[in-house]
Amino acid sequence: MYQIVPVAPGEQQMSGGTGGSPLKKKLAHEGRPLVMAGFLGCVLVLAAVVAWCYYSVSLRKAQLMKTELLDLNKDGFIIRNQAGAVIFTMTFRSGTLDLDSCSKEGNILSCTQSASGKLNFFIQTVRPKDTVMCYRVRWEELQNKHNVEHAMTYNGSHWYGGAETATQYWPIRIQGEEEPRPFITSDIYSDRNAFGGILERYWLSSNATAIKINDSVPFHLGWSVKDRSLRFQARYQDSPFRPPQGQEALPELSYRVCVGSDVTSIHKYMVRQYFAKPIKVPSTEVFKKPVWSTWALHKTAVTQEKLLRYASDITKHGFTCSHLELDDRYTADYGEFDFDPQKFPNASGMFDQLREDGFQVTLWTHPFINYDSINFGVAVEKGLFVREPSGELPALVRWWNGIGGILDFTNPETREWYYSHLRMLKTRYDVTSFKFDAGETSYLPRQFSTFVPLSDPSTFTRRYTEMAIPFSERAELRVGYQSQNISCFFRIIDRDSVWGYELGLKSIIPTVLTVSILGYQFVLPDMIGGNAYPNRTAGGLDGKNGLPDRELYIRWLELSAFMPAMQFSIPPWAYDDEVVQIAQKFTELHETLVAPRVLELAGELLDTGDPIIRPLWWIANDDEAAYKIDSQFLIGDDLMVAPVLEPGKQERDIYLPAGRWRSYKGEHFDKGPMYLTDYPVDLDEVAYFTWVHL
C-alpha cells in the first residue's frame, strides 16, 4: 500500500532519484489551487477571529468607559439626561488619557496614564438621592508640573454663578478669549476686569447641571467665546496659589458635577451640600428701616457738625433710620481707632446727642495701617502685618488711601489686637457695629508670607470676614469667600451713578441674583443713586449741587425698596419735595410690604439656604424665556418685581410666568406665560405682581 501526499511547490520529493513520475507531476499540478484556497480560507478565518476579538475588546472598552449616563473618551467626557440628550460636556485641554491604562471597578472609572506620563485620574458616580446623580472627577498629575486644564462647554444652556463682576450679566455672558487667571477675590471698582470680592467656585446651568470646584485646587478661570466654554485650570507656576506645606507642586484639578431633574432642585441640593448657612438673622431693624451713610454725601470731608446736621435732617424730613453709618474719615490717620479731635472735637458728646435723638451709629473700619500712623510701629513690633516672603519684614501695600501694612488675620495675636480696638470703640462711645471695608486678596502683595501659610490666597478674605462675627447684628462686609455662615449684611461693591451694566443701575439685579445663588442672602445693594464720583456719573454731576441725575436717583430708590435692605447717603431732600414724597412712599412700602416677607424668608433660609431674592426661573424652570430675564426678580415665590431701569421711560415690557398674578393696580392676569408690552409705569411707581393662590 502506498499513500499519495500532496506536496507544496518547491518541496523536495522523498523518493530516490532527482525526477518524479508523470503521475506524481500531474497530481502535484492539480493540487496547487486546492492548497491556495485552503491557505486563503485559513487567513480569512483568522482575520475574522481577530476582527471579532478586536470588536469584542472595543465593545468591552466602550462599555468600560460608560457609567450612569456618562461617556468617557481620551479627550473628555459627556453626560446625558434620561432622554439621551447631551447636557454637559467637558474637554481635557492639557492632555489626553491613555485608555489602555483605564479600568472600571464598581462605580469608579480610573486611569493611570496620560499621553504625557503618570497620573491619578478617576470619575466616581454617586447617587445621593433618586432625582440627583453626581460625578466626582479628579485629574492629578504625578509627573507634569505645568497645569491641568478642562474646558466646560455651554451646550446651548444658560449659566449662572462664579463671582461678582464689574460688568454683571444674568445669565453669564462670556466675551472674547481670556487665558485662565487666578480665581481670587479682588477689588473690581479699581480693577474692572478682575473677579469680585464675593466669589465661590460654583456654577449652575439651565440644563439642571451644576459644578463645584474643590477647595484644594489651585484654581484659575478663563473662557473662550469661540468655543463657548469656561476654562478650568489648576496650576502653581506663575500663580499666587501655593502647594500645602511639605507637598510637591503637582497640580490637581478636582470637582463634582451634579445633574438633577430641574435647575431649582439641583441648586437646592448643591446649596445644602456645599454651602454653610447663616446661623441667625441680623437685626430686624436693618431689614425694615434704611441705613443712612455719610460717604456719598460728604466723602472724607465728614465732621462732627455735618454728622449731627445729617441726623437732624433725617428726622426733620420724617424718615426712619436703622442706623447712621459714619464712613471714611473720622480718624486723624488711617490705622487709628479714635476720633480726629480737629474734625470731632467732642465725640463723646456727639454720641450722647445722637443716642438721645434715637440714632444708633456704626463706624467704618478696614485692614490697613498706613506708615504715618502711630499704630504702624506698634504693629511692626508685635508682628501683626502680612510679611514679605522672607518673613522678616512687613510687606508694604498700596490701597486707595495711601501706603501701609495690611493686618495678618491668620495670626491670633493680630485678630485679638484688632478686635480689642473695635471693642474699645464700642464700649467708649456705645458704637452699634462696624462697616468692614476692603478685605480682597488683591490688596495682598504679589509675594507674601502669613503667620499661617495660605495655599489659597482667598482664605485671607475668609479670615477677615470672621472679624465681623462679634458685631454681626448690624455689621456690613463687602467681601465673601466661604463666608455664608457669617450672619451679617454683604454689600455689593460701590456703584457708579450711571444707568448701565458696568457698576450702574442695570447691574444691581444681576449682581444681587448672582451673590444670592452663591449663598449670600442678606444683601445690601449699596447706596441709592450710586456714589456720585465726579468722573463716573451719568451726564456728569449737576453743577449747582453735585448730585446724580434726578430720574436715575428716583428709579434707583424704587428698586432698592424691594431689596432686603435700603441704604441712603445722598438724601432725597437734596433734590426737591417731589423726590422726598416718592422716597417717603417707598421707604414706607419697604417697611410694610417688603420687609415682613423678607424677614419670613430670612428665617426659612437658616434651614433651607434658599435665596430671598430669586430669579424668575425659580418658579418657571421649564420656561426658556425666564432663564434670560435680568430686569425682573422674585421675593420668595409669590412677589415679582419689574422696575424701570431705562432713562426717559414711563413704560416697560414685563414677562409674567405661568400662573395667576395680580398687579399692584389690582389687575388680574391668569393666561400666562405672557408679555405685557409697554406696560405703563409712572415715575413714582414700580410694577410689582403678587401670585394669587387658588
TrEMBL record:
Its main location: endoplasmic reticulum. Residues 301-444, 505-593 form the Glycoside hydrolase family 31 TIM barrel domain. Keywords: Endoplasmic reticulum, Glycoprotein, Glycosidase, Hydrolase, Membrane, Nucleus, Signal-anchor, Transmembrane, Transmembrane helix. Gene3D superfamilies: Glycosidases, Golgi alpha-mannosidase II. It is a single-pass type II membrane protein. Putative glycosidase. Promotes myogenesis by activating AKT signaling through the maturation and secretion of IGF2. This is Myogenesis-regulating glycosidase. The gene is LOC114441872.
